[in-house]
What does this fold into?
Amino acid sequence: MNEIFSRASVRQFEPRPVEQEKVEQLLRAAMAAPSARNQQPWEFYAVTNRETLDALAACSLYALSLKGAPLGIVICCRRNCSRPEYAQIDCSAAAENILLEAVSQGLGAVWLGIAPIEMRMEATAQALNLPEDLYVFAIIACGYPAVEPKPQDRYDPARVHWLT
It folds into this structure.
């Protein structure tokens, strides 16, 4: 899969919007992620409203890339899922699928960590006026890259332990 090796965090975006069909494909990829006992604990907020994106950018110093992004996908977890201890793992898989699908669509994206920092989680929930049964896990800033992303080769053979 070329997308795995060509993915890089993109934090600067062109001002043009992401087409609706591409956003839907990103969300389809997210929901295709594996999930413990198929609980699918996720809810997604696709944000294109400029005021809301700016409010989300203010929720964390690490979310400033949302100020220039035409799209933010907020990944939330349902508190009342069947296996809450696995909810963030499931949502991590969904986030990675979004990042890989973004590459496939010719988009750039970056994963913005929100959980487990309570202050970030609360600020983001307030910015979106989330219902009590959801908590924010992460945000993916997404759009057309303003600069060409530079993937890194992170393979480190020293971290591989062969047991033969």
Q: What stands out?
A: The chain has a mean pLDDT of 96. The chain has one domain: 2-159.
